What does this fold into?
Amino acid sequence: MKKKNLFLFFILSCNLIFAGITGKLVGNITDASTGEPLIGINLVLKGIVLGAATDQNGYYKILNISAGSFTATASYIGFKTTSVTDVRINADRTTTLNFEMQISAVEGEEVIVEAKRPVIVRDQTATTTIIEKEDFENMPINSYADILDNVAGVIENNNGGGDDGIHVQGGRSGETAYLVDGFYVKDVINGGMTNDVARGGISEL
It folds into this structure.
């Protein structure tokens, strides 16, 4: 079953905000010994049918990657195959991953490294909290609302006072937009989402 991406936005104006459901992977691949860019390096993401080849500057770009963790593998004749595990792709974000490939003395040599998360996300222009599947798969929760209850600045009001629902950063439930896989799914009459999304069906929130 395909996992879904759930987005919540705090609306400060009458305009609706829409989000995509895929991310992008970019980077440069160079020769570890000389620092020169390598042309025509094949880069693939294991488990999905997506990949790219580097251009004359050693640059590659892979678009439309579903949110999740992947292993990226770069290979080229005469160089050790290099795999980077736990490459995290977030929806609407660009992940940068650079490779330094080593010359191989024996055919079939492979280097495996683990990706590091950046401290600063350069293309993030607003306050954003991303909760990944690995973060909540062991929590005692059943739905997206239970997940949100564990996020700072988010509370769920169920006192029957006419504004029940999820409140984000002090805003009312009617000021929150809900998007699932990029589609607007807010209940315009009662607020909240038109239907629930089970925990097992969410890859990123």
